[in-house]
């Protein structure tokens, strides 16, 4: 039995999808509730999304 | 037993589907609640969606 | 044991179904709540749906 | 052990069922809440459902 | 049977995605509700996210 590398890559994207989905979803809802806080919400969104994005790409490279 | 690469590609799309679904769904609801904030919501939606889209295509290429 | 490619294609459609379902469902609910925002909601819906649709077809071709 | 192609076809229909079910269900609820927005809701419903339907048939042909 | 390392890396990112998603999502909602507390919320968000990020990278390196 051989499990291709792409299955692992798929699990990485599932993890990033769960996380970025929750981060982005809450950001959208926050902007809709307080449009004047858009800048602050977007800054925080990009910080936390970059952490997860960096980890996902790191895992793609290091996990091979 | 051989698991085809396409199974891994499927997992990648499941991850992107979970994430883009949550991001897009919350964006729709936000626009419906505050139509005048459409521009701000759409900008944030595209930023976070691009991060996930880029990762998914990156995983498709790198994970092979 | 051999798993046919079509199983991977099925996982791709499950991912797209989860995502497009959430996007479309929220769009319907948004239009019902604010019918005058239909244009804005539909534009955002098509942007995010196109990202997921493009990825799903990309995965079908690249993942083989 | 061989997994027949039909299992993959089944997964495709599960994906389409999840998506079309959510899209159609929300459309019904939206029309029930705002009957005068029926036309707008139906247009959006057909756009997003066509995307998923097209992908499902594409996967059936390309995934073989 | 061989399970590639990348599958383990994928599980690491799923864990981090669940955690960072909840952290980031709640941070966005908090900033939207109290925009004047942005600094405090962001500091706490970065502390807790760094802990999870550090663990995930540690696992990637040490788990090999």
Automatic annotation (TrEMBL), chains A, B, C, D, E:
It is a multi-pass membrane protein. Pfam families: ATP-synt_C (PF00137). It is found in: Cell membrane; Membrane. Keywords: ATP synthesis, Cell membrane, CF(0), Hydrogen ion transport, Ion transport, Lipid-binding, Membrane, Transmembrane, Transmembrane helix, Transport. GO terms for cellular component: plasma membrane; proton-transporting ATP synthase complex; proton-transporting two-sector ATPase complex, proton-transporting domain. Residues 8-59 form the V-ATPase proteolipid subunit C-like domain. Key component of the F(0) channel; it plays a direct role in translocation across the membrane. A homomeric c-ring of between 10-14 subunits forms the central stalk rotor element with the F(1) delta and epsilon subunits. This is ATP synthase subunit c. The gene is atpE.
């Amino acid at each position: 039995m051989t499990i291709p590398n792409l299955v692992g890559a798929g699990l990485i994207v599932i993890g990033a999808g769960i996380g970025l989905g929750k981060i982005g979803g809450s950001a959208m809802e926050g902007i809709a509730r307080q449009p004047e806080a858009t800048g602050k919400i977007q800054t925080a969104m990009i910080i936390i999304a970059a952490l997860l994005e960096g980890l996902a790409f790191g895992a793609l490279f290091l996990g091979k």
